[in-house]
Amino acid sequence: MTQSHKQIINAMIRFLKTQTKKRGFSRVVYGLSGGLDSAIVGRLSQMAFGKNATALLMPTSLSSKENLQDARDFTNHFDIPHHIISLSDYEPILQKYPKMSKERFGNLCARLRMMILYDYSAQEHALVVGTSNKTERILGYGTIYGDLAYAINPIGNFYKTELFELAHHLEIPHSIIHKKPSADLFEGQTDEEDLGFSYQEIDHLLQKIEERKLNLYKTDVIFDMIRGEFSQSLLSSVLTRISKNSFKNKGPSIFTSRTHKSKESAQ
Asked: Which is the CATH superfamily of the domain at 3-178?
C-alpha cells in the first residue's frame, strides 16, 4: 500500500470514529450486499470498530445467489459479526400491489432494508453507515429513503472508479472487485446496463465537470463548454439523470411563515 492510500484509509477510519462518537454512538451497522461499495464500507467499519461493526445481509428471492455467497464469504474472511435477514416473507405482500414492476419491487425492497437497518439501530444503539458512492449520488442512482438514507457515509465523495483501486489496498476479495457492479434489484441486473454507459465513461465526464468547476445543474453551460469532448448521447443521458434526480440530494422543502410574510411584503 502506498503512503497516500494509507493516509486516505486512516482518514476514513478517523472519520467513522469521530462522526460516530459525535452522535453519541460506539457501534455501527450497515447493509452488506456482496458488492464492492458495501464491502469497502464493511472493511473500513471493521477496522474502525472491530466487533462493534455489524453487517446485515438482506436478500430477496430475486437477489443474486452469487452476491449473497460473496457477502457471506466476506464476513467469514474478516470475521465480521452479521445477520442474514431474508425479505422473502414480505414479498407476497409487495406482489399484491397493482401493476408491480421489477423497478418498483426493487425500490420497495431498498426501503425495507433501510427500515430493518434503522430498527436494528434502535435496538442495538448502532449508527447506520451508508454505502453510496459519489457517482451514484450525483446521478441520483439510488432509492430515496432507501439506500440513500443513512447517518454517515465514508465513501460518498469517491467516484466509483476510484473505489476499485482503494478496494485492492483494503484487501477486498477479488471475486467482489472484479464482478459487474449491481444494485441487486433482481437477478442479472447490472448498473452499467441500467445506466447505458460504463462507470469509466461516466466518471470521466463527471470529473471533467468538476475540474472545470462547472455547475452540475446548469446543463446548457456544460453542453457549451465540453460538448466536443464527449458523445452527445453520454452528455444527454448523464445530465438528464442529474437534473431529474437532483431532489434526492436535497432535504424536503418546508414552509415557514417568515418566508411567506417576506414574499407578501415584497409585493
From this structure: HUPs (3.40.50.620)
